[in-house]
TrEMBL record:
It comes from Pseudomonas songnenensis. Residues 334-356 are annotated as: Disordered. Keywords: Cell inner membrane, Cell membrane, Cell wall biogenesis/degradation, Lyase, Membrane, Transmembrane, Transmembrane helix. This is Endolytic murein transglycosylase. HAMAP family: MltG.
Amino acid sequence: MIRKILILLLGVVLLAAISLGLFAWKQHAALEQSLAVTDEALLLDVRPGDTPSGVFQRLEAEGVLDDAFWLRLYWRLNLSGQSLHSGEYRLTPGMTARDMIGLWKRGEVVQYSLTLVEGWNFRQLRNALLNQPKLQQTLDGLSDTEIMARIGAADLHPEGRFFPDTYRFTRGTSDADLLRRAYARLEQVLEEEWQQRAEGLPYQDAYQALIMASIIEKETGVPEERGEIAGVFVRRLARGMLLQTDPTVIYGMGERYKGRITRTDLRTPTPYNTYTNAGLPPTPIAMVGREAIHAALHPADGTSLYFVARGDGSHVFSDTLDQHNRAVREYQLKRRADYRSSPPPRQAPVNSESTQ
């Protein structure tokens, strides 16, 4: 009797060992199988709310892998507390199911980037958002006022309120989300710089410094000149002189600007014409980088009150009107074919993608 019991127990143990071995073999085979990804990478879109089990089943239905049951069982037994980040995962030729699960565990979703460029106005910023196909478009068709309300900045003018930088995001991020990040970043940088400002500046608040920074941004073709240009404008502002800066006139012209400004344009009143209006314009005229903000808040010492473009992006600075007029005659009335009165337009880098 005892012998029969021992034989029975031995059979049960042997059967259990065979079952465990079969289980381990099936699970190993499922994990080590190569995904059916051929010549090009496959982007796996994991949507918010998707579960590992559901994604395994979807991939099996699409013929990307086999034995989804064993993969679901593996996740349940070994990774039940692991969250599955939504986003896109890049599956490449030769990748195994185990490799894919490794991507999920590390959250290595594909990231895209959008570069917002110093000197852009809000219209150019909106176009950049609209032309990024990986962003979820929620702002198209809204007015500027409606957009500012959407991002939590109601009643604020949008010009200059966003920080130029390269922003990384995952597919499904909305244009409003990215704009909120750029808005918050500008607020942070402006506050940091404002707290460290020089003494005796003719600004009532940080917003006026931002307006000045936008003028400096548009006038500067040579980075080393930011402080000196800021010094000219700050001295003119402090003395009650007109700023007389072309970029503000151009901004005020809007769609009327066709590449050049005339004497008539300089005499035509707009809120942004600093040839006819004293003080700063009512809003910034472009997005600004930290360097322009810093220059506006730390203008270079000096006595110059005028500057004129040489035509290569740099400027000649003068203390007196007579000196300035001589520089104008030399550099503007004898223009070369490649003359530029302002910095060349800056282009955003090509949008790119990477994994996080």
